[in-house]
Amino acid sequence: MRDRSRNDGPDILEFDNEFWRFSLAIYGQAHVAEECLSLQQTLGIDVNLLLFCAWLGTRAVTLGANDIEDASTAVDNWHQNVVRPLRGARQWVKTFNREELGGLRGRMKEIELDAEQVEQAILFAYSKHLQKTAGADRGDAIASNVSRYLKAKSAGQTSAVSAPHLIEVARRAL
Q1: Which of 57, 95, 121, 133 is the most exposed place for a label (fewest CB within 10 A)?
Q2: What is the pTM of this model?
Q3: Is the pLDDT of residue 2 over 60?
Q4: Where are the domains of the chain?
């Protein structure tokens, strides 16, 4: 029997969903992956949450600080206990510059991507209770959501942090 006192996410997850397909399309565009990974390295952002903010903007959903915090909480256990350790292990194995480990690194990368897809499925399930913002311009909602998340993650930074490539590519996807 499942312990319902634990917050393990929804019972049923949709892995192939609109958010996942959006992320695959956007992340593969010029400069987006590099921008996201740079923000992950410098600020410790969760790239899935950043993409989630952009995707919701394309749906005319404008997020408040509490919405972003709640979305982060929804995936925090999975991200901290599964995604990050898998990423760390893959990156550590990568330091062994040995050709025969290439297959292992490749399989580890596939497993990490599967874990990212689970995280996105959790976020997709979370998104179902969010409402479109009446009269919201989708382009503005994208920029607002992404900026709000980055502002929260960069508190205390002396310079402004942004993701112009992600915002532009998401706007073009409208």
Answers
A1: 95
A2: 0.91
A3: no
A4: 18-172
62: left (phi over 0), alpha (psi -120 to 50) or beta: beta
Contacts 24+ apart (CB under 8 A), 115-119: 115/78, 115/82, 115/83, 115/86, 116/48, 116/83, 117/15, 117/20, 118/13, 118/15, 118/78, 118/82, 119/46, 119/48, 119/75, 119/78, 119/79, 119/82, 119/83
The DSSP call for residue 79 is I
Task: Please check the confidence at residue 83 and state whether its pLDDT lies above 80.
Answer: yes
Q: What is the mean pLDDT of the chain?
A: 92
Q: What is the mean pLDDT of residues 72-91?
A: 96
Burial class (CB in 10 A: 0-12, 13-18, 19+), 167: buried
Burial class (CB in 10 A: 0-12, 13-18, 19+), 102: exposed
Q: Which residues contact 5 (CB under 8 A, 6 or more apart)?
A: none
- Asked if pLDDT for residue 38 goes beyond 70, the answer is yes
